[in-house]
Amino acid sequence: MTDMMARPAPAVPVPPAPAEPPAPGSAAGWPPVAPPPAPAVPETVPPSRTRRTARRLVAAGAALVLMLGGGASGALVTDRLLDDGTVATAVRVVPALTSTIDSLSAVVAGVSPSIVTVTASGSGGTSLGSGVVLDAGGLILTNAHVVTSGGSLAVELADGRTAPATLVGSDTGADIALLRADGLTGLTPATLGSDATLRVGDPVVAFGSPLGLAGTVTSGIVSALDRSVDDMSGLIQTDAAINHGNSGGALVDTAGRVVGINVAIATTGQDEGSIGLGFAIPVDTVRAVVDRLTSGATG
Hints:
By secondary structure, the protein is mostly beta strands. It has helices at 104-111, 144-147, 283-294, and strands spanning 56-59, 65-67, 77-80, 83-84, 115-122, 125-133, 139-142, 152-156, 162-171, 176-181, 203-208, 216-229, 232-238, 250-253, 258-267, 278-282. The strands form 2 sheets. It has a 6-stranded antiparallel barrel with strand order 11-12-13-16-15-14. Strands 5-6-7-10-9-8 form a 6-stranded antiparallel β-barrel. The radius of gyration is 28 Å and the shape is globular.
């Protein structure tokens, strides 16, 4: 545990008053100055051994724990992240632009209407994740692990409207699912970009409903590309805060284009939240899966 207590500062010695100088013409001189004491040599302390801590990868969706390496100590663990119990049309693709939006508030204002909260309710309880609007007629993209528990599905839009939803199709290997919000029209589709132009250090913004807090936005950078996590590869790593309930939400560049779908975080413990290690499925991978699902394939 970090010691947050303020330590008192050491007392500062008060120097003695300077001696009076000798009178002019006097033979008396200044007293000899004692040499300064030799500095104390600090005692060498052997470096302590770093305690090994198993890393946990938590996907922003359901409570499924998968061990790598047969569950050996220190193995990477994936927990498909979700907030539990408390609370075929063409996809629009816009080519990369040369200019970006300078203000993140402008990015948020443009993207937020395209982000929804997804709820799956069944006999085992209620789970919650996020989703991205793909067309005006209510086609919603989310993670497969958000809806894997089955039961009834519902979405809540950014403007507060809610509607039941039906599962159009899913690809559990890619962790992508498509829903159709029933009875809703006039939705605002998200603009899909391309992860091919992403570079490490690019600023990004994460959208979703962590712990059911709809409309939450966090920012960070692309920390790494082509990460392999559990059974998924090619993921985008970001330090934008991603927590339980963010699964299926959008990772967006500063031009307001979706470049990834939030899917997992790494933590040091089962009940911990973001430590700045989040992962997203690249949007080009997502687009290929959506094309299959909307053409009738189920993956």
